[in-house]
Amino acid sequence: MRTETKAYAAQSADTPLAPWNLQRREPKPHDVEIEILFCGVCHSDLHTARGEWAGTVYPCVPGHEIVGRVTRVGDNVKKYKAGDLAAVGCMVDSCRECDNCKDGLEQYCKEGMVGTYNGKQRDGSGNTYGGYSNKIVVHEDFVLRIFDKLPLEGVAPLLCAGITTYSPLKHWKVGKGDKVGVVGLGGLGHMGVKLAVSFGAEVTMLSHSANKEADAKRLGAHKFVLTSDEQQVKSLNNYFDFILDTVSATHDYNLYLNMLNTNGKMICVGAPPDPIQTPAFNLIFQRRSIAGSLIGGIPETQEMLDYCAEHNIVSDVEVINIKDINEAYERMIKGDVRYRFVIDMATL
Ligand code: NAP
Ligand code: ZN
Ligand code: ZN
Questions:
Q1: Is 151 exposed, middle or buried (0-12, 13-18, 19+ CB in 10 A)?
Q2: How many domains does the chain have?
Q3: Is pLDDT of 1 > 80?
Q4: What is the pLDDT of residues 56-71, one digit of tens each?
């Protein structure tokens, strides 16, 4: 048996998102059924819905920053019960048997993790559909615990923007004494600033939007540099230990590579469709490196949620009606979001 679920879907790369009904499976013994209360709007939703990355299967229901309330659980579920708050991030399954899965790095599963949307269910039952919907059914191993201490709409973006910035900062042990540049003040960028500051680093916001300076400082950034200002950019030559690049559009990485000090690392989390291009010399000199990082594993996502609850860290959000999702996408492209749109799912 399956349950009818209301959703918003893109039917092709160039049609706006619109209402569409899908079927969710009945909870199996290890499944948790969640009524979705809020879902954050990630730039990856837009890249996928509009076919900017290869491989979108339509209809596509985006959304992987999901918070809600448990409505039903399967017979074998011990960790959750009806009425509990719960969250789902970017993955709903993985092989659970490879080295990475065993190490809690399900995002790097050797067989490929199953994305919350535009993924293939491992049992062959079809495509996955995300959080722009009123209900989701997920294996308990991929459900996260959240608390009512913080506003739920501000917690939702932690499930992607939060963990995607937390994970690399932790992996490279960024903290006191480190100089960090965060490129792009959007959903990921503003969480990167908050988290890096909370870890004790000196944080500089590198933005192409002059009107974001006051916000960057309010979010905790120690400095703000407008990347179109040649003088300011030059003053940062060989300056940073780490740069976290969150930019969603094609841009020149070389501008930032030159800001890295000896052994400095440029961590790319932003995923524009075009390749990164740089002369080898920009890496050879000062022994710089470029790295990437994908979301975070389930144990680390729980660790991040607990850390944010303890330190009162949430996302700055603008709550929207789902009917305004297409307009929100246009505003996101223009960088006109302070700093994450979150859909109130009661409007679906
Ligand atoms: P977002 O909210 O739209 O923020 C992107 C920011 O990039 C903008 O606010 C803007 O900041 C900057 N930017 C935009 N266009 C630019 C341009 N033409 N030149 C220079 N800067 C520009 O997006 P998001 O949701 O944070 O996502 C950012 C990227 O990360 C997307 O590509 C997304 O797919 C990717 N992502 C990756 C992962 C992962 O696991 N690695 C996870 C989630 C998302 P300023 O106005 O301050 O310059
Ligand atoms: Zn995302
Ligand atoms: Zn695996």
A1: middle
A2: 2
A3: no
A4: 999 999 999 999 999 9
Pair 278, 201 in one domain: yes
Atom of ligand 1 nearest to the CA of 268: 41
Pairing of strands 179-183, 202-207: parallel
Q: Which domain range does residue 218 map to?
A: 162-292
Both 282 and 338 in one domain: the answer is no
pLDDT tens-digit readout, 277-286: 999 999 999 9
Distance CA 201, CA 96 (A): 35
Digit-coded pLDDT (tens) for 224-264: 999 999 999 999 999 999 999 999 999 999 999 999 999 99
Out of 39, 43, 183, 290, give the residue to mutate to test ligand 1, the one with the largest number of ligand atoms within 8 Å of its CB: 43
Instruction: Tell if the pTM clears 0.85, that is, is over it.
Output: yes
Residue 279 sits in the same domain as residue 230 = yes
Instruction: Identify any residues that bridge with 226 across adjacent strands, giving them in sequence order.
Output: 207
Write the residue with the smallest CA distance to atom 41 of ligand 1.
269
- Cα 199 to Cα 177, 194, 203, 301: the distances in Å are 10, 9, 10, 16
Ligand index nearest the alpha carbon of residue 103: 3
Ligand 1-lining residues (CB < 6 angstroms): 42-44, 47, 160-161, 164, 184-189, 207-209, 212, 246-249, 251, 269-272, 293-295, 332, 335, 337
Domain-terminating residue out of 254, 273, 292: 292
